[in-house]
What we know:
Elements: E1 9-14, H1 20-31, E2 35-39, H2 40-47, H3 57-71, E3 75-80, H4 84-97, E4 102-108, H5 111-118, H6 129-135, E5 147-151, H7 156-167
Parallel strand pairs: 1-3, 1-4, 2-3, 4-5
Amino acid sequence: MVGTENTRLVVLRGNSASGKSSVAAGIRDRFGRGLAWVEQGNLRRVVLRERDRPGAANVGLIDLTARYALDAGYHVVVEGILYADHYGEMLARLRADHRRPTHGYYLHVPFEQTLARHATKPIAHEISEPQLRDWYRELDLLPDDSENVIEADSTLTETVDRIMLDTGLADLPALEH
């Protein structure tokens, strides 16, 4: 088993520019100390500098990092594009091993809106529209019905509020880590 009787595990997935990082940052800011943000993009692109492909090293690193933080008593938000066919098995094992229920969310943003949001990002000049279109997967949900779909019309505040309430994080004190 992974984590403690009190730890919460949140998996936050969606296409590029769907708002995942903003939501994860909002949850962390709202909760305070004691919540680990396990960010796929950082572990894959920065730490390992690898491409996103099935069986890549970052899949295991995300799993190990989340497990380590949960075992240390941190609540964990695993956040990233996390394609279902690349990360689904790892996420299913992590969810099954976690002592408490895992809360999964998929941020669904239509491609045209994704493209508009991407244009506002600092890395917009590095990634072309054809690349973004190639990466985009419409409702790439995990096969086990474990995710709540949050549509693009949900504001950042509404989304963070919902996740804080659904997971019980809103009722827990920040930890002393």
